[in-house]
């Protein structure tokens, strides 16, 4: 049901409490009578005569009233809620938003104190279950009103059905004890979830909180484009749970003045926290904030010298490199201890007697082994006694008393990220590291980097102290821009130790690790969180495996699609205790798991976080879609029972143990269960049964196509994905080029979306003749070769070419020759020069074989570079043709297209 159609079913003055029963009966005093409602296919928001709101989930077989009629949006005055507003007006209207079209409901209510509340609720056509809340308060009285706080989206979720397992919660706030981001809600649970500083150097986060039970959940957050000093409290109230977005900013609302609260949203969903976080990512991307497509080297396995800690020596590091190379690690990371002091980012001459020249020599040694070099740095901090502090005290972030803000972990002081001099001095340091010394990336480290306190330093001339809070993302942008200007393929890894990542910084991060996990459970649930927030194929890293439970749990990284990392020492470990020495037994274990990671590189695949619920599904299960297969990872202390494999496409699938390769059985979408027995973890691979070894690409059915004839952005977010970064012979590409392709099927069309990392672009300025073939392929293009089922075994297929500027050409290939055709294919393209990514969307009519889903064959190609470049042109193919010279016209190499039923 669309939002527009939903308005036609308004309730008027009918009592809602008699129509949809609460999950538990609500007291009569709060049961309310519904006067108006707005709903889509997933949620119904119902308002009574006092503008109180009830949330009903429509995602199950029967509607579920998740809440009673709550004073969901209100003010706090004198420590008490001001929430009684008499409904004055309710008007529906179509809505146009940055997130697409929708329908809005404008509500106006008035309190006895003369405060007018104006609420606009907007439901989005592309995002069922998401409701946007725009809330304003106008003082229509004659006296000023002193306000303690405003509150939006405040609801009490009724007790879960008996024996259903209660509630779980996700919080995006940071805490000094580095607690789990995902927790069960037990009696007595209470977490304020303030997104400012919760300790001297622990603060910031992602402005979303979620509470869910087995059959439904409710998330609340804000959509502002900068961090805000707000809270998202979650509190157990007996067996019920309270959730809200709250701003504790005391202020006086003068007569005639208006208080505007931040743009708020709620999400009603099924499944765990992944669903609302993924929706939040999409909504922020629509406003221009999204994590970048990571460089390909971000997916390479990492070794870090931190096993030697700060007292490392160059001799120890160099002695370890041969073993690092032998085991298949591609990154060597030099950690803390290379610098004179934090803030003085020059080499310690006791370790690097020749200073920068020794740094260059180390990088050269690493490069000579075919590896890349990364350097640790902790910007935004300065140590007492450092030259930087002595010479530039004006950089400090000061509190309202004029005192410096402590970074306790490093025994340092904060610098102000909003101060231009702080940014420019950091930029100079990063240019030295990347452009001069030749490092291929940075490990940016420290919990203090996630958020800062308001700055009162008068030398910075802030208009508001909160400018420092809002400028942290600007500081990240400086890092990202400077590093990539020096080396477009450099990797900027950010590790805000133990904190809950601040979403507003993510557009300027190439890689996020699990940031000093306290357990394997943290590795896994942080991975699910970051895949939701940064994208399903983000280059999340599991951090050093030595930090996992037991110190060698690679399965918790590999199984969830995380990049593997380690800090082993070899051939000796000079420390008398806490040794990370790679013994022969440990080496065998490391080798087995690093080989498995390098073989599958699941981190490049599409994480399917929507398929399993971390709170309620047993055993704990994660899924990654990669290279035509579904990879399942199960975790439990012990398991002996049946599991159900979700997400299977049509046909039969063979299941194998990922480590041993042994066959475990066969499954299908209608018979997806399999008996398994394991201790701790089991990784399996399910691959569709096909008669040959050719690759398989999946296409899911599109749910909605826009007026422009292309799927909505939300449809692409759910589309199956395939990926290639090898040439037409199957050899890895030496450059940065990689190609990711998403596929959808619907209304007699195949829809494809190419996401292409590029080095340089060359295109024709204008199209050639409309009726004859012209050499579009002599410049940069992506190509789709598509063969209908009734043409199988014949040299008969279509070739569709699209350039980065949107030029399109379609050619029919037959035994008799080639000819230009116009079957109605359409294309559009976009180039992101900042991140060096170009995107092409294609809509291709599927004619032949009656458009049925079975039997279609295809291949996907890409060319980069002008024809004049000769052997330096880059020819890549999804299914390699393996010809001596580049040749894409090999129908026998076409892979298979499988379409979900």
Descriptive overview:
With 901 residues, the chain is α+β, with helices and mostly antiparallel strands. The protein has 13 helices and 55 strands. The strands form 10 sheets. Strands 43, 44, 45, 46, 47, 48, 49, 50, 51, 52, 53, 54 and 55 form a 13-stranded mixed sheet that branches. A hairpin with a 4-residue loop joins strand 2 and strand 3 (53-57). Helix 3 packs parallel to helix 10 (520-534) and helix 7 packs parallel to helix 9. The chain is globular, with a radius of gyration of 29 Å. The protein starts with a helix and ends with a strand. Residues 1-32 have low confidence and may be disordered.
Instruction: Give the low-pLDDT segments.
Output: 1-32
Principal-axes shape call: globular
- Write down the overall mean pLDDT: 93
Q: How many helix segments? A: 13
Please report which band the strand proportion falls in: under 5%, 5-15%, 15-25%, 25-35%, 35-45% or over 45%: 35-45%
**How far is the first residue's CA from the last residue's CA?**
22 Å
Largest sheet: 13 strands, mixed
Structural class: alpha+beta
Rounded radius of gyration (Å)? 29 Å
What's the total count of β strands?
Answer: 55
The helical percent reads 10-25%
